[in-house]
Amino acid sequence: MTTPATRRVPVPDGLDGERLDAALARMFGLSRSQAADVIGNGGVLIGGLPAAKSDRVPAGELLEVTLPAPPAPVLANPQPVPGMTVLYEDADIIVVDKPVGVAAHPTPGWTGPTVLQGLLAAGHAVATSGAAERQGIVHRLDAGTTGVMVVAKSEHAYSVLKQAFRDRRVDKVYRALVQGHPDPLRGTIDAPIDRHPSGDGRFAVVSAGRPSVTHYDTLEAFRAASLLEVRLETGRTHQIRVHMQAVRHPCVGDRLYGADPVLAARLGLTRQWLHAARLGFAHPADGRRVEFTSDYPADLAHALEVLKAES
Fold it and tell me: What is the pTM of this model?
């Protein structure tokens, strides 16, 4: 049985003047959203009073931080993931083609299969860096998004790849089927993203959010939708889905972000039409450029066939 841990810690000199959520994330190895959750739940006190995530904290400020109990040991009995294929593997990395309905790693409230558990169940070694429930994970795809994903096997690879994603040196190319026809047909959406003010699990474009940049190019236009190639500079949660909704062209089938359920039903879709088609990066062992691709899964391919037949 684990209990929340409370610590009294000063803000390091290197974080002088930072927003509290950013400082907390750096100090405790949390994601920015996890840090915001801790603060929003009253888990950070300054001078005995609950703090706000936007508070600026000076060096030396004493924080009383109550971190949530770590999740149960979800990796103790890893389960195989049917349909997940390994595209490439060596001593440093393993690249998988992630199927729909599979999360990257265990999270509170998620009871479905995960990439990490699937790899461990199949006997693959992964790096032990990072939190226990995220070991080896250097980036994520939503459970409802399919396609290419890389996992670190060696500790060196974990460190190098995490930095490459932070520095935007990874080529992340997606295909997205969106409602309507974007105008212009090729463009950039530069709009900050953070949690939706409703607190219902969605994300949204908000003025105080994290910088987020999405580039898109229309590949094919159908009567009711457009097939886009999308490149991400940043990697925010739900970034493509949020940005496309913000320009009033949500991903087809994405009910969470306002997609038309009638169109989704006609195309046989039960999730957003979004696929990580290509991933390129410098190999952590020797710096050579490597690239991996993934074909459309059956449900996405079928939706395209229906649209082509109608157009």
Answer: 0.75
